[in-house]
Design a protein that fits this description.
Keywords: Cell outer membrane, Membrane, Signal. Component of the lipopolysaccharide transport and assembly complex. Interacts with LptE and LptA. By secondary structure, the chain is mostly beta strands. 3% of the residues lie in helices and 59% in strands. Among the domains are: 119 residues, Sandwich (lipopolysaccharide transport protein A fold); 157 residues, no CATH class.
Amino acid sequence: MALVACALGPAAQVWAQQAPAELALQPSPRLRETFPPEVRGDLPTFVEGGNVSGRTGLETVIEGDAVLRRGDTIIRGDRLEYHQPEDLARARGNVRINKAGNTYEGPLLEMKVDAFQGFFDQPRYRFLRNGAYGQADRVDFIDNDRSVVRNATYTTCQREPESGWSPAWILTAERLNLDNESETGVAYNAALRFFGVPILPIPVLSFPLTDKRKSGFLPPTIGVDSVSGAEVTVPYYWNIAPNRDATFSPTVMSKRGLDLGGQFRYLENSYSGQLDANYLPDDQLRDRDRWSYHLRHDQAGVAGVPGLGLNLNLNRVSDDNYWRDFTSRTTTAGSLTERLLASDGVLSWGAGRFSMTARALKWQTLQDPQALIVPPYDRLPQLVGRYTRQELPGGFAAYAETDYTHFRSDRVLNNQPNAQRAYTLAQLSRPWQAPGWFVIPKLQLHATQYEFDAPLLANGRTSADRSVPTASLDGGLVFERDTALLGRNLIQTLEPRAFYVYTPFREQNFLPNYDSAYNDFNFATIYTENAFGGNDRIADNNLLTLGVSTRFLAQETGAELARFGIAQRLRFKDQRVVLPGTPPVTERLSDVLLGASLNWDPRWAFDSTVQYNPKTSRSIRSTIGARYNPGNYRVVSAAYRLQRGFSEQVDIGWQWPINDLWGDRGRDLGPGRGQGGGRWYSVGRVNVSLRERRVVDTIIGVEYDACCWIGRVLLERLQYSPNSSNKRILFQIEFIGFTRLGTNALGTLRDNIPRYQFLREQVDPPSRFTNYD
C-alpha cells in the first residue's frame, strides 16, 4: 500500500495516510501547457512514496519510489527530502526530473522547486522540443528557463540497438548555456564532430534550440558558381527587437571579390517593410562597382489620416549585366535579376464609395545589345479616382473612374511621342438576379483626351480626343440535378451563358499606344466588353459570346470534383480597332475556348485550357497541367504550354523517395517528419523548349535522410541567353535540431518545386503531456 502526502501551497499543512487504491490524480479538461510566474507560488505540492514522514510546515522525507509534483515539475528518486520553508528538495538514487517534458536523470539533485534553482550531478538529459539529448558532469539550474551544463555533449541522433553504436554527429563543449526563454544555446570551447571527424571547432558557438529568432552568426554557406567561382557566405543575424531584425551577409566570390549584402525587416501596427541591398566594390570580372537594392513598404493610416495608405516597391541595380551575372539573387517580392525592374510608389485613400490613388512608376530596363527590349512607359505621375454605388433607386448600380497619367519613355525605341492622357469611364447597370438565373444590362462611356510632347507622325497633331459608348447584356441560367457517377452521389450543374456587346467604331488607330495590349483569351476575359487591357484602345464590337459549363459537386461536402466548359464568340462585323502592326479582325467565328478541371481523387489534379481553331483543326494556345500527390514527400507535377508559332514548353517538377524503386515505402510519419531514416529522395525541376529542342532551366538533386542529419546535393543550370547559361553546385548538410552547413539548397527547392515538403519542419510544437510522468 503506497503512502501519499499532499501540501497545498508553500505554507500549507502536510497530511499523510494510507491511501485507498481509488485515490489518485484525476485527469482535468483544463490542463495547462505553461504556468505564469505569478501563480507558481500558489500551486499545490503533491508527494508520495513507500514511506512518508516529517514535521508539519517544516520538512517531509519520502523513501522508496519517492515522487514530488508541482505544476509542470516532477521529481522522482529513491529518497527525497523536501524542506518547506526554503522550498528545497534533495533527491538521491535514480533521480529523475521532468520539467515541462524536458527530462534529467542522475544520482544526486538539490533544487529549490518553485524557483527551479539548484544543481544536478552527472545528469543525462533529453529535451522535448527537438529530441536532443546528452550527458554532462553537472547541470546548474539558474531559474525556470536558464541552465548551465558542464562538460556536456549534445546530439539528436537516437541510440540504435547494435553494439558499438555512436551518434553520427555530436557536439562536445566545455560549457553549455541553455536559455529556454530565448530558445537558444551557447557552447564554449565546442567542437562539432561528424562520424568522428571534427568539422566545426569553434571557441564560442551559438545555436537555436527551436526556430525562434536570435542574434548571432548563422551557419556559413558554401557554393560553386560557373560565373562567380567558389562562394562563401558568413551571415550574421541581429534580432534588434521583436518587430525588427537585420541580417548581414558578406560573401567572398573567388572570381569577383567581396560582396556586402544585407537585409532589414520591420513590422509595426500600421506599417511593415523590408530592405535588401548588395554592394560589390570593384568587381574583378566587370572592373566596376556593382550594387542592387529592393525596398518594400506597406502602410495604412499615413500621418494619422483614416483610409490613407502608402505602398512602395523600389528596385534598382547598377548595370545592364546584373541580371546575367547574379542569376540566383532574389527578394521576397520577386527577382532582382529580371530585365525589367519597377520602382513603384502608390499613395491611396478610400472612404465609403470613393477611392483615390496617386502613383509614380519608373522602370529600369536592362538592355542586351543582341536582344533589345522596348522599354515600358514610366508613369510620372498617375492619378486615379473611383466611385462605386451598388444600390441606386430602381435597383441600378453605378461606377465611375477617372485617370490622369503622364507617360514618359525612350522616344527612339518606342517610336512615338510621350504624352499626358486623361481618361474617364462612366458605367450604369441594372442587375436582375435570382436563384437559377441572372440578367445584367450595362451602359458604358469611355472618354479620353491626349496632349503629346511632339507632333504625331500620322497627322502632325499635338493633341487628340476620343469618346466611345458601349452597351452590353449578360445573362445566364443555372440548372441542378442529383446524379451518381463512379459510385459517388453528386450534384451536377448545367450553366449556359450568353453575352452580347455593341461598341460603335471610333477611329483610334492613329493614336499612340502607351498601356494597351490584347487580353489573354480565357474564360475570365471572353465575357468582357473590351478585347484590350489598358485605356488606349477600345475595341469596336458587335458580337455575341455563347458558352456553357457543367460542374460536378460532392453532395456531402459541396466540393467541386470536376468542371467542363466551352465558349465561342460570334462576330457580326469586322473589328477595325487594332494595335499597331496588327490587321483587323475579320473572322466571324472566334476560336473555341475549351476548359476542364478534375479533382475527383485528392491524389490527382488536372487543369487545362485550350484555344482551338476549327478551320485549321489545330490548337492555337494550350495550357495543360497535372499533379499526382499520393502522400507526403511524393509529388510529381507536369505542365505543357503551347503558343502556336512562338513557344512550346514542358515543365516537370518532382519530389519522390528513391527507395520506392526497391519496394521500401517507408513510414508515413506526417508532414515535417520525413518517412524514416536511411531514405533517399529525388528532387528536381526541368523546363524543356520543344520548339528549340533544348533544355532551358534545370534543377536536379538528391536528399538523404539519416534521421538526425540530412544531406542535399543539387545541380542547377539557368539559361539567360540562347548561348549562355549559369551553372551552380549546391550542397548542404542539415544537423537536425542544431544547424545547417553549406548552400541554401532548401530555399532553391522551396522556390522551384511545386508542393515541395521539408523533410524536417516543426508543424506544431510538442505538448509537455506527450512526455508526461
